[in-house]
Amino acid sequence: MAINILDKIIKAKAVRLAELKGAVSPADIEAKARSLPPPALDFLAALTAPKTSATGGPGIHVIAEVKKASPSRGVIREDFKPLDIAKGYLAGGASALSVLTEEDHFQGQDRYLRDISRNVKLPTLRKDFIVDPYQIFEAKVLGASAYLLIVACLKPKQLADMIALGAELNLTPLVEAHTEDEVKIAVDAGSPIIGINNRDLKTFHTSLETTYKLRPLIPAGTPVVSESGIFRKEDLQALAAAGIQAALIGESLIKQKDVTSALKELLSF
Question: What pTM was computed for the model?
């Protein structure tokens, strides 16, 4: 029987959350978040802006991911300098950045998100396993423009409430689904943008066919992000032709010595 990696991550997250709330109370983090102005950069607007490819055909936005490690691959980049990597993505043509803050399985840090949000002129997504409104308030305080919600981690009512909280804070929730049932939940909850994760978070098996299978279930007016398993410019070209607005790319970029050149090559179709 396959190990359910997602369950392990969520259990570890519960421990981390208890520690955080002991250091900074939920009331204090909420007050801080609500006192801040809207993010200077709009994640949703960046990913829905008109986009053409390098050769004039249908284009696709790239959310480039700043990620040191993963449960399936271990450490992906030993020479990990998050701010330099983010600046490299900007130079390579990224439309937005995804920054891992999950500590136990992805070796992320909140400070990576804070430093990148302050110093790189691209909207940032807090990439984490969000199971509590506390983490959304944190995302705002850290400077994020958006935050990830994973349908598999939340009950439908929780999901709807956490989407609504984003609207209150002027943050964009990227709602991630992997199955037909999860897409239906995401749509019914009013998700402003839906990510289709090509990687099964329970087994970590990955296939781009997941995006092509699930895309027709999402209303035409809702932007779609394809996540994981994107390694070649031909992958991006095919996704763009299928009407996908954006692709979230991590491993295939982060493992390259020159992330700027690697991203430019992916976008050269």
Answer: 0.96
